[in-house]
Write a structure and sequence with these properties.
Layout (H helix, E strand, L loop, with lengths): L25 H4 L1 H20 L11 H12 L3 H14 L2 H11 L5 H5 L10 H38 L4 E6 L2 E7 H21 L3 E2 L9 H6 L5 H12 L3 E2 L10 H30 L2 E3 L18 H23 L10 H6 L2 H21 E3 L1 H9 L5 H11 L5 H9 L6 H9 L7 H9 L9 H7 L3
Parallel strand pairs: 3-4
Antiparallel strand pairs: 1-2, 5-6
Length: about 450
């Protein structure tokens, strides 16, 4: 065999530059992970058949069950390689798993006697679709959701910590009514919580109903067995998935499209946030913690670039491109099946890998942020024009004529200062009650944040 390739020779950066960051996903969504789940499904189907009351097939002893399930628990890279070696002859990956499993039963008389019930009445897709669902279940539970939860927790902490820190808004890139740093972060938290629920709530479907979904082989062998009920029991009780009773040869993958779309939506929210943070760093609202030895530019020594947020944006884009293809292609199959889904499904790990890489980059970037309160305050102090909204709204309340038009003529396209705004309020011709004038005169852009602080604090509840 040729020597293993260096990560420097990897075509995908997931297996090269970023290989260590993919360690949690690799055993779940790699070809090893697929083989592992195939063995699990074959074993559970085999054991379930022994419990089905079929003529000539007695229930396995506890020792036999332990041995079979031990093959799953102790499944190793060496086992996966042995299956690959068999595949060189079979040119069929699922049949190779069946033959490998049967080879492991040779020295166990009880199991060897029943070995023709390994893969009994199954088509390859009975094994594959359940395996893919188990792979996605593990990846979602063990890696994807915890990565998103880490970001949500960090952003929630930031929203509460900065709930009362005023910040100038910009709509269309122009100065707008002030908000608080915490409220803007709370907006992202609220969106992410909804998106996270959509990922978590997708039911992972599976089928075990034979070559074209009708239990043909099952019934010809045992006509009196309720095979649909049996298959449902295996899928739901033994494998922990949701049974799909109506399929062709393949489970139609609609749930996968739903799951991948939900992940894409989450990633899109995080692209939006990554770009916003990039902008806030550019404005000086956030500083980034320095790291000894790190270089921002090969030519400009002063630079501390927002690379974590740029990397996150780029990787989320790659993930979404792949996830979109998966969600659009997988539900389409010619007649009762074609093979295009199989080759595409081998890239689930690549698609989710780029998403996880994005989550990691974003988390690292958030951990480096330090709020620059002076920059935020200075930005507000140069934007007194934003109080025009407050003044004209109070004028409306008291029935003064054309308040919007007056403030438009006074402020639009002109630099505004504290003195100019307070001069407008103090004008004897402005017929506002004295207490209202006093309230407006005491107001600064930093005070004009509405319910922002309380809304930000509430996001942690």
């Amino acid at each position: 065999m040729p020597p293993p390739l260096s990560t420097l020779m990897a075509l995908s950066p997931l297996d090269g530059r970023y290989a260590p960051k993919m360690a949690p996903l690799r055993p779940l969504l790699s070809e090893f992970g697929l083989m592992h789940r195939r063995v699990q499904v074959e074993v559970e189907w085999f054991i379930a058949l022994s419990d089905a009351g079929l003529e000539g097939f007695a229930p396995f002893s506890e020792a036999a069950r332990g041995l079979l399930r031990g093959l799953v628990v102790r499944f190793s890279e060496a086992d996966a390689q042995a299956i690959k070696d068999i595949e060189k002859t079979t040119n069929h990956d699922v049949k190779a798993v069946e033959y490998w499993l049967k080879s492991r039963l040779e020295n166990q008389p009880e199991l060897k006697a029943a070995s023709e019930f390994v893969h009994f009445a199954c088509t390859s897709e009975d094994i594959n679709n359940t395996s893919h669902a188990l792979m996605l279940k593990a990846a979602r539970t063990e890696v994807v959701l915890p990565s998103i939860d880490k970001i949500i927790a960090k952003l929630t902490e930031m929203a509460k910590a900065f709930a009362s820190v005023p910040m100038l808004s910009r709509t269309h890139g122009q100065t707008a009514s002030p908000t608080t740093v915490g409220k803007e972060i709370a907006n992202v938290v609220a969106r992410l919580r909804t998106a996270r629920l959509r990922i978590a709530d997708v039911k992972l479907l599976a089928k075990m109903n034979g070559a074209v979904g009708n239990y043909n082989a099952h019934l010809v062998a045992y006509p009196n067995k309720d095979w649909e009920a049996f298959s449902r029991q295996v899928v739901e009780q033994r494998l922990g998935l949701t049974f799909n009773p109506y399929t062709i040869q393949i489970e139609p993958h609609d749930y996968m499209a739903e799951l991948f779309d939900a992940v894409t939506r989450t990633n899109t929210i995080l692209i939006d946030w990554s770009r916003d943070v990039w902008g806030y760093i550019s404005l000086g609202f956030f500083k980034q913690k320095l790291k000894d030895g790190e270089v921002g530019s090969s030519a400009m020594p002063h630079k501390v670039n927002p690379i974590d947020f740029e990397n996150a944006e780029g990787n989320f884009g790659l993930a979404n491109a792949l996830l979109a293809h998966l969600s659009q292609k997988l539900p389409i199959s010619r007649w009762q099946r074609d093979l295009t889904d199989s080759t595409v499904l081998r890239n689930m790990g690549v698609a989710l890998g780029y998403a996880v890489l994005g989550y990691d980059s974003l988390s690292r970037g958030l951990d480096k942020l330090e709020l620059n309160r002076d920059a935020l305050a200075g930005d507000l102090d140069h934007a007194w024009e934003v109080l025009a909204e407050a003044i004209q709204t109070v004028m409306r309340r008291h029935g003064l004529p054309q308040p919007y038009e007056q403030l438009k003529a006074f402020t639009r396209g002109k630099p505004m200062t504290r003195e100019l705004m307070q001069g407008f309020i103090n004008d004897p011709g402005l017929a506002l009650p004295a207490e209202e004038k006093a309230r407006l005169l005491a107001m600064t852009p930093a005070d004009y944040t509405g319910l922002a602080a309380s809304l930000a604090q509430r996001i942690g509840s």
